[in-house]
Amino acid sequence: MGLNTIVDVLNKKGQSYVNKILDEEVIITEKLDTFRILFEKKDNKLIFYKKDNSPITLIERTLNDIWEQALLELPTLIGETDLPEGIKFGVAYTPVERPLRIPYTNLPKYILTDITKRHGAGKKVIETYNYDEVTQWAGILCMGRPPVLFKGKLNEEQKRLLIAYDTKEYDGEFDTFAEMITKTLKSSYSKEDIIEGVVIKSGRNLLQIISYEFEILNEAYKKTTGSRDFYDIVLLSLNEFMRSYKFPKIKSKIFEEMYLEIINDIFVKYCKTEKLSEGLEPHYLTAPQYGHMGNLNTKFITNKKALEFIKKDPIYEALYRVFLSSFRKYKKPFGLLTENIIKNFNTYVGIISNITNENILDKSITNLNESRSENIVVKTLKRRQPNDVDNMRIIASIQSAFLPQMFNIPQGENKCAIYLTSFKPFTNAQMTNLEQIHSQWNVPVILAAIGNKRNIKGEKFHLTDNLISGQMKTLSNFNKNLIPAFMLLDTWNLKEVFEFCRPHFEPLIIFTDVGKKSELSLQLFYEEEIMGGKINALPEFNIGEMENKDSLAGYRAIEDGNGSLFMEVTPKPIHNFYDSIINEYRTWEGAEIAQFEPIKYPEIER
Description:
The chain is of the alpha/beta class and 606 residues long. It folds into three domains: 4-216, DNA ligase/mRNA capping enzyme (D-amino Acid Aminotransferase, Chain A, domain 1); 229-356, no CATH class; 414-589, HUPs (Rossmann fold), CATH 3.40.50. 42% of the residues lie in helices and 15% in strands. The protein is built from 23 helices and 15 strands. The strands form three sheets. A five-stranded mixed sheet has the order 1-10-9-2-8. Helix 10 crosses helix 13 (339-356). The longest helix has 19 residues, at 255-273.
């Protein structure tokens, strides 16, 4: 978790701000260098998650057996306890003495560290239980109590030592940070000679201090990870092998089982084709890492031939784990893996994801309604055999010969999100959507809208482009850090969005109004899968949709000329547009539609 240190806050906000934080009632907890697992009750079932809030899937459980003990023992510990739905329990999980870098001899296997209420099925925490409540639940669930070292108001000496230690102005009164904490706070949790650090909670503020000893230990682990050349060589070999590989007919129906079935087939055919040096040390095929990585969990591998190879020699087990992990996420150029090689390899990653018809890619998941297309045409294309896709590419290449040369615009410098929505008018619900996008993706949001130049004389009321761009500009001016730019587009065209953004911005995700994601997803599928990446979107780029819950109320306020309702459902920056919008509506409503001046579409505002 990327918490600020005391020195960070000192540099950003000054000494008085830090003093104010430490003068309040604080709770200080020990950071534990171990695994983290979360669970919640959902539809009367226990669901388990990793520390990044992603579910522990069959793929994760096969890759290593770290989680197996917890997945068997935690339901027993929980037993018949009536867990409230929608509440996530966070647990520090120590299955071995040295899970990561620090060895522990006195830690309980399961320590209940936090209980949170989150928004929907997503990551955003909206309520955190206090440590007294967490301690009570730890007793109910027969787990270790939270690692609290101190609760109350710090005295001047305690504050001085904490600030001095983090700012490197510490005089060395104690031999280690662990000793300083134990003697200064009169408390110890793990009772180890080395601790990772502490977290200080003061109101809503969280600060951390990392021990010097842990920093040295961490650097030592980073330096001993060794070369990954053998790992890269295997991926080079696998990349070449996949050129002639034919995907099998899949029997499974569940996407995780489908993924395992494909990996088993690739693994068996590769081992039959390629010669491996049996007796080669397995660690040569292990990506740089540290800590306890567990063993391959073979109980989920049903392919008998794959099991025969795995049991034959440890190098095959290491190879299987490389295959299992490599095809579930897009890769970036590194070491021996050049950009062209990675681009080719990522094609197979995408094909496997499409065949399983699920998003198996290892990336962050949010509570927002993001998805690849629900359009039946796109689903049909996803289910096609790769040979069919290749045939489509051949047809597309013939078509492209008669198309004008496309200007190659490089990817933008700064990642952003796009909120492509309607402005009739812009409502509080849309503002909430925009803020939620920013919070979940931690990137600025560019506002976008489709111009209404062609719709002015239509049967439905449409705002002129001047009023649309005016709303966007005002919102941007009031929230420059959140909305650094806006754009007015001619059509629902994905390429136009990217052309507007680049080279300064690069879309990470586009959110649009309900009912429009299929159209954009189909464009993305065609440009990236069939036309060979003409847009050149990021591998993790995605498309989603969000509902404008105030849409009807906003239009009703205009229709009825209800100023109070308009002010109620729109954010403050939009209030000044009320008279202009009402005037346009009355003009449209009249017998003669006004002829508006041609609109000069604005360039993207930066």
